[in-house]
Amino acid sequence: MSEREVYVEIQTLGNSARVAAVDAATGEEVVFQVPIHTTRLEIDRLALAKLNWKLARNARTETGKGKKQRPGDKPGRGLKV
What we know:
This protein has 1 helix and 3 strands. It has one helix spanning 40-63, and strands at 6-13, 16-23, 29-35. The protein has a 3-stranded antiparallel β-sheet with strand order 1-2-3, with helices on one face. The model has no long low-confidence stretch (mean pLDDT 84).
Protein backbone atom coordinates (compact mmCIF):
# COMPACT_ATOMS: atom_id res chain seq x y z
CA MET A 1 0.00 0.00 0.00
CA SER A 2 1.28 3.46 -0.83
CA GLU A 3 2.02 6.00 1.86
CA ARG A 4 -0.72 8.52 2.45
CA GLU A 5 -1.18 11.57 4.62
CA VAL A 6 -3.13 11.06 7.84
CA TYR A 7 -3.91 13.78 10.38
CA VAL A 8 -3.91 12.57 13.99
CA GLU A 9 -5.26 14.53 16.96
CA ILE A 10 -4.73 13.29 20.52
CA GLN A 11 -6.58 14.71 23.52
CA THR A 12 -5.97 13.45 27.05
CA LEU A 13 -9.03 12.69 29.14
CA GLY A 14 -8.03 11.55 32.61
CA ASN A 15 -6.43 8.10 32.32
CA SER A 16 -7.19 7.75 28.62
CA ALA A 17 -6.55 9.60 25.39
CA ARG A 18 -9.09 10.32 22.65
CA VAL A 19 -7.58 9.87 19.20
CA ALA A 20 -9.13 11.22 16.00
CA ALA A 21 -7.47 10.27 12.70
CA VAL A 22 -8.47 11.70 9.30
CA ASP A 23 -7.32 10.43 5.91
CA ALA A 24 -6.31 13.55 3.96
CA ALA A 25 -7.22 12.12 0.54
CA THR A 26 -10.74 10.89 1.36
CA GLY A 27 -11.72 12.85 4.45
CA GLU A 28 -12.73 9.66 6.28
CA GLU A 29 -12.37 9.89 10.05
CA VAL A 30 -12.02 7.33 12.83
CA VAL A 31 -12.17 8.11 16.54
CA PHE A 32 -11.07 5.80 19.34
CA GLN A 33 -9.69 5.81 22.87
CA VAL A 34 -6.44 4.36 24.18
CA PRO A 35 -4.79 4.21 27.61
CA ILE A 36 -2.80 7.35 28.44
CA HIS A 37 0.55 5.49 28.35
CA THR A 38 0.11 4.15 24.81
CA THR A 39 3.11 5.04 22.65
CA ARG A 40 2.77 7.30 19.63
CA LEU A 41 3.92 4.47 17.35
CA GLU A 42 1.12 2.22 18.64
CA ILE A 43 -1.43 5.01 18.21
CA ASP A 44 -0.29 5.64 14.62
CA ARG A 45 -0.44 1.93 13.77
CA LEU A 46 -3.91 1.58 15.26
CA ALA A 47 -5.13 4.70 13.46
CA LEU A 48 -3.86 3.38 10.11
CA ALA A 49 -5.40 -0.04 10.73
CA LYS A 50 -8.78 1.49 11.58
CA LEU A 51 -8.69 3.82 8.56
CA ASN A 52 -7.77 0.92 6.27
CA TRP A 53 -10.66 -1.11 7.69
CA LYS A 54 -13.12 1.76 7.20
CA LEU A 55 -11.97 2.48 3.64
CA ALA A 56 -12.23 -1.22 2.75
CA ARG A 57 -15.72 -1.39 4.28
CA ASN A 58 -16.79 1.67 2.29
CA ALA A 59 -15.39 0.15 -0.91
CA ARG A 60 -17.41 -3.06 -0.28
CA THR A 61 -20.56 -1.03 0.37
CA GLU A 62 -20.12 0.94 -2.88
CA THR A 63 -19.90 -2.29 -4.87
CA GLY A 64 -22.98 -3.68 -3.14
CA LYS A 65 -21.24 -6.59 -1.40
CA GLY A 66 -21.38 -4.99 2.04
CA LYS A 67 -24.81 -3.45 1.70
CA LYS A 68 -26.95 -3.75 4.79
CA GLN A 69 -30.19 -5.60 4.30
CA ARG A 70 -33.31 -3.91 5.65
CA PRO A 71 -36.11 -5.99 7.14
CA GLY A 72 -39.40 -5.91 5.26
CA ASP A 73 -40.07 -4.71 1.76
CA LYS A 74 -40.42 -0.95 2.25
CA PRO A 75 -37.59 1.53 2.78
CA GLY A 76 -37.52 3.53 5.96
CA ARG A 77 -36.69 3.32 9.60
CA GLY A 78 -37.96 0.88 12.18
CA LEU A 79 -39.18 -2.68 12.15
CA LYS A 80 -42.57 -4.19 11.41
CA VAL A 81 -43.96 -5.85 14.50
